[in-house]
Amino acid sequence: MIGYYLRMALRSFRRAPGLTALMVSTIALGIAACIVTLTVYHGMSSNPIWWKNGELYAVTVNPLSPSRTRQAGLPAYGSSQLAYGDATYLFGSAIPKRKTLLAFLFGWISGAPDQTRPLPVMTRATTAGFFRMFDVPFRYGGPWSAAADRGPEPVMVLSDRENHQLFGGADSVGRTLLWSGHRFRIVGVLAPWHPLPRFYDLSAGAGGAFARPAAAFIPFQWGPTLQDWPAGHMSCESQNAPTTYQGLLGSGCTWIGLWVELPTRAARRHFQAFLQAYAGAQRAAGNFHAVNTHLWTVSQWLAVHHIVTHRSWLLVNLAFALLAVCLINTLGILLAKFLRGAPIAGIRRALGASRRQILTQHLVEAGTLSLAAAALGLLLSAAGLAGVRLLYRGSHAAYGKFAHFDPIGVAWALALAFVATIVAGLYPAWRIGRRPPATYLKSQ
Question: Same domain for 348 and 292?
Answer without folding.
Answer: no
